[in-house]
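Re-run with default settings, no changes from the original entry. Doing this only to confirm the output is reproducible before filing.
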Amino acid sequence: MTATLIPLRRTAARPQPAPPAAPPSPDSPIQAARRRFWPMAGVFALFALPLVLGWGLFALGWRPGGSPHGVLIQPPQPLPPALAANDANAPTAGRWQVLLVGKGPCGTDCQAARRTLTQLRATLGKNADRVALREVPVTPPDLGAAGQPPAAYRFYLADPLGRLILAYPAAVPWGDLRQDLDRLLKYSWVG
């Protein structure tokens, strides 16, 4: 007689019941206070960090970059009567004004300046009611704008209070004038 081996099937091991959990040990008041401290410290740090960074940047003398493309008129000059709007159909009180001031033959500078006014008018969008764009046919006044040579045509930017604050040559790229105007409109609450 020959013996045959019969393979035995393995049976899955039955899971053993877990030993009963030990009751949690009561925390001491000091441990409980420490556990509550760290989330509160994180929230405080989250709100204090911008204040500390702002104070540090101010203390170090950092200022945001960017300066106007035009020449700043210091101190701002009141709008001369020759540049004031005499037309009742063009109300300018309480509005920013971009003035193209010039008199004489209209050469290439004059034509480029007129195109600049047209391009500004087309790109003002929602701020169109806050800005008055005008061409004033008078000789540009000498307001002591440093670095501005006498010219037949010149741009001026006037604030809503009726003061000239920036002067530009007639050949200024319209994008530079637009950038200065956008910055003023963004941060100004008047006009």
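Helices lie at 29-59, 108-123, 174-187. The longest helix spans residues 29-59.
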